[in-house]
Amino acid sequence: MFDHRMRIGIVACEVLKNEIESLVENDPDIVHKDYLEFALHVYPEDMRRTIVEKVDQLEGMVDAVLIGYAVCQSLDGLDREVKVPSIMLEGDDCISVLLGPTQYAGAKAECTGTWFSSPGWAELGMSGVIKELHLDSMLEEGFGPEYFLDIIFDAYKRCLYIDTGVGDRESLERLSFDFARQLRLPHESRCGTLENLDKALRRTKELAQCVINGTYHGNG
After folding, report:
1. Are residues 81 and 160 in the same domain?
2. Are residues 186 and 105 in the same domain?
3. Do 203 and 87 touch, CB atoms closer than 8 A?
4. How many CB atoms lie within 10 A of CB 65?
5. 94 near 192, Cβ under 8 Å?
6. Residue 3 domain-assigned?
7. C-alpha distances in angstroms, 175 versus 73, 172, 182?
8. DSSP line for 87-112
9. pLDDT score for 154
């Protein structure tokens, strides 16, 4: 009998790269990885279209795809739109994935003006925020970012770093602290989790096994 080795593809946001890599390192089932630039979030329609294109390109090459995105701004139902059997992350956004929905809700209840800083966001730093908040065009017109950042972050009361246990914690937390200092925000830290990412990976493998066994009947 032909032995079909499981083939898993990953199409994910670069903000989650470190966490995903820590889970799939040396995993022979992972045959393709594509981390997309986080700035796609700025243009939700383009982001959706790009993810669909990247996943569809894997048709015939993999059994299933882990789409490393939560619902975010405009991705609801995306796993039913692609041509390859796929699993998305559970949660409203990457912070919900890394902190867990209960802790996420609790942190927001503690302080509604919380800027959440994951390891990926800490690495992106101020340049990432400028892109995320659509300030690029203002800079191109000769305006300094400080004016707009002061206005936008006036409602924020703290920066909360999420330690996912991946990478150099001291270095990543320092980047997050430096970001908070630039915006004159108090800085706090909290432990995150890889449980939700690991769960999504396991679900993707279960889906791939269904495809291999011929018991997969569609994402709908």
Report:
1. no
2. yes
3. yes
4. 32
5. no
6. no
7. 26, 5, 11
8. EEPSSSSHHHHHH-HHHHHHHHHH-T
9. 86
Q: Is 51 found in the same domain as 113? A: no
pLDDT for 41: 79
Nearest residue to 206 (alpha-carbon basis) of 217, 196, 216, 193? 216
What pLDDT, on a 0 to 100 scale, did the predictor assign at position 143?
61
- Residue 14's contacts (CB-CB under 8 Å, 6 or more residues apart) are 35, 36, 37, 38, 120
Q: Which residues of 150-171 are buried (b: 16+ CB within 10 A; e: fewer)?
A: eeebeebebbbbbbbebbeeee
Tokens encoding 192: 């995150």
Average pLDDT by stretches of 10, the chain with 220 residues: 79 95 96 92 88 97 96 85 96 92 95 94 85 65 66 89 93 95 94 97 97 83
* The residue type at 157: K
| One domain, residues 15 and 61 | yes
Q: Are residues 57 and 113 in the same domain?
A: no
Is the pTM above the cut of 0.85? yes
Whether residues 46 and 60 fall in one domain:
yes
Clarify whether residues 198 and 168 are in a common domain.
no
Q: Which domain holds residue 38?
A: 8-92+194-213
Smallest CA-to-CA distance from 32 within 1, 5, 2, 65 is with: 65
Give, rounded to a whole angstrom, the gap between the first and last alpha carbons of the chain. 31
Residues 106 and 87 in one domain: no
Q: At what angle do helices 119-132 and 169-182 cross, to 10 degrees?
A: 30
